[in-house]
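look at this stuff:

>
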Amino acid sequence: MKSWLRALLLLLFLSLSVTAAQAQNTLPRENAVKEAAKSTAVPNCTGGQVLVNGACQCRPNFYWNARMNQCRPVRTCPPGQHFDRESDNCVQDVACTGGQVLVNGACRCRPNFYWNARMNQCRPVRTCPPGQHFNRESDSCVQDVACTGGQVLVNGACQCRPNFYWNARMNQCRPVRTCPPGQHFNRESDSCVAK
């Protein structure tokens, strides 16, 4: 009886081993089938798109509007207007003047040019020689001004900052002082003096 039981247990063990091996062998195949199904899945087109050659596209005479997240019809606009896909509307044609070009619906000067209102045209930004800088208002190179004595450059002229004055004797900007009652500030002597 012991040999019979041993044979039965051996048979049961072999049967379980074969079943486990078969299960392991089919697992990679099942995964491969699942991965292949994923890679050949048909895209789910949205926003009015249709599937063309495996990719979602808008139908002819429609365009994709990312802001609205849908296909929109291309419109025909009246004379003097054009269709702007970004706003999805007909907009007024803009005629740029003075050498400007249309950029994002607005007239602008090309790079390295600036708008000169006095001349009513785009003008090139110039490179000036050392000691000069380009003044867009006069459209010319002008002499650099080196301010001294604490002055700052304001509209092309050296000036003292607010609450300071130019003391010619000391050749520098000096602070305006508040004097005690009965005295006033004398800028020439840079001191408070009796009234």
Q: What stands out?
A: Residues 46-91 form one domain. Residues 116 and 137 are 7 Å apart (CA to CA). The radius of gyration is 42 Å. The chain has a mean pLDDT of 82.
